[in-house]
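SAMPLE LOG
Freezer: B-3
Tube label: C17
Construct: single chain, 187 aa
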Amino acid sequence: MDKKDIYEHLAKIYLDASVKGKKAKKNRSKFPKPFLWSTVAVLSLVAVFSVFFLGKKPLKNTEVALVVNPDLVKINFNFDPAKKETYAIALNTLNMSGFRDLTFEARRSNYNDKVALRVEFTNAFKEKSEMYLQGLPHKWNRYRIPLAAFKKISDWSEMAELAFIIEEWNTKEKNGLVYIDNVRFLR
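STRUCTURE (predicted):
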């Protein structure tokens, strides 16, 4: 073997090895195989869990709600000249025959006061029905009132108004604040 044969042999070995090395590097994925397999395993477990556990049971806390007033309402009462304070929401002949409950959150501002809140519905035919919430708390409390509790309303298909009323004879103090928030109807 002469020098030329040796150089050709070495070049062939070197060039073949470098080409194979480049091909091997191109075939490798960017993520290591254990990471890829663990990701596939976790996603499979999540899919099985969601189908097995969530697919069989309906969600318990699902509600369809019509939000009437999402804003915080402040009823500021001062009973020196007036005898009652009212916050009314116009329902514009809303068909409420498919709804079950009225729900909202309320609280009073004065810790020492005792306040009863009157909730009143009026329909387009001038039928009125009311109920009282005695002992409105100082901290936020969620109220859920079935519409069936308003017995004097015979037709819920054209509702005119929802009113929250504070009356002088249902408070201990002559002035104060009542907050009402997140008024909505539930199906």
